[in-house]
Amino acid sequence: MQSFSKLHARYLAEKENREKLDWNRIKSPNDKQVIPYSHLPQITGPEALSKLAVLKVNGGLGTSMGISGAKSALEVKDGMTFLDLIVQQVEHLNTTHKVDVPLILMTSFNTHDDTLRIIKKYVSQRISITTFNQSRYPRIWKETLQPCPKHALDDKKHWYPPGHGDLYESLVHTGVLDRLLAEGKEYLFVSNSDNLGAVVDQRILQHMIDSDAEFLMEVTDKTRADVKGGTLIEYDSSMRLLEIAQVPPDHVDDFKSVRKFKIFNTNNLWINLKALKRIMNGGGMDLDIIVNPKMTDNGQEVIQLETAAGAAIKHFNNAHGINVPRSRFLPVKSCSDLLLIRSDIYSLQNGRLDMSESRMFGSVPVIKLGDHFKKITDFQPRFKKIPDIIDLDHLTVTGDVHFGRGVTLRGTVIVVANEGQRIDIPDGCVLENRLVSGNLNMTEL
After folding, report:
1. Closest CA to 414 of 372, 366, 358
2. Cα–Cα distance between 115 and 399 in angstroms, integer?
3. Is 333 known to be catalytic?
4. In terms of DSSP bridges, do strands 80-81 and 238-242 run parallel, antiparallel, or are they unpaired?
5. Annotated catalytic residue, options 277, 333, 368, 374
6. Rounded distance, CA 390 to CA 232, Å?
7. How confident is the model at residue 445 (pLDDT cuts 50, 70, 90)?
């Protein structure tokens, strides 16, 4: 609770002093602060891997998809879960290069027991797996700004995992940081467990070593779908992560602009562990506070004080961004994302997703599934088999729609079932540039 007390006191002080970001002091990063991936060195050998550890942020429940347990236990491709794919990736790395890269899972009180149960099945595989539980912070009442729980054993609903910015404190308090250093590990690759594109990249690791960078953040080019993602900025001559929650209301449109802020944070981070030890021993980090308002089941307003792991960039020497290909950012946040991952656009190779060579364009289609597909228990019965979408550009589906086997979707396809109607796309149907509505009325687009 010492970490929470410090965060809470800082929040109250900032609120009292009305400290705000000065928008006029924000600058876009220059060419030395964000380096294109194409400029990174080629790899000559696997030696650097012996100093690497991999950490996955694994505290999420996936409630937005209707998942009650750990999100990483969801089957995402060919019957394999997020954790299955992660383990397969790291095991393949170890086997191929004859190294011992350990896997660390940062869980929360929501996912810890689930994760311990799941990882038992990997006991015979060539991989060392460590789990540790991140902090548990009390929610605070919006009106009084005082903690909701009255004691440590108070109801679970009064507590929350305080975001991935808690990573650094938790690495120290659990002893995992000291253990990694004692094992000769110097670099840590951190990413979210639901980002299927976040695999170990030796070119980025080698660049980190060659450039003496203590911290690297992978960023990628922003699209219209990413306007809310945090971005890298220069502020008072240092690199900073700017999240939308920190943006003054009258500048939100500026923040979302692809013209001014061209990149966003993938939350794939590379950290020098010796530097992290030095910083934590020197008083730790004051990460920017993200105020996350919530509503309790009985309608009371509460606040969660959170921090982002990427905000630590300002504390490290020679920290900068790497503009990586979009393929390194493949998160599954919704059933629309899941449809894409399960489709024929991607195949699995040693736990990693590879885009099919049959896909004419390097980009993926835009998929928007309506509320009938929001929960995983609703999504799965609506597809006898995932459609062939290798030539799809855009798919929008709303209402009570079901897809048969062997369906092919090409170009732009829009399917709209009105209230009280049901549309069944028949087995073997090919839809190309079509609007389907009513009782299978088809209009060419």
Report:
1. 366
2. 35
3. yes
4. unpaired
5. 333
6. 33
7. low
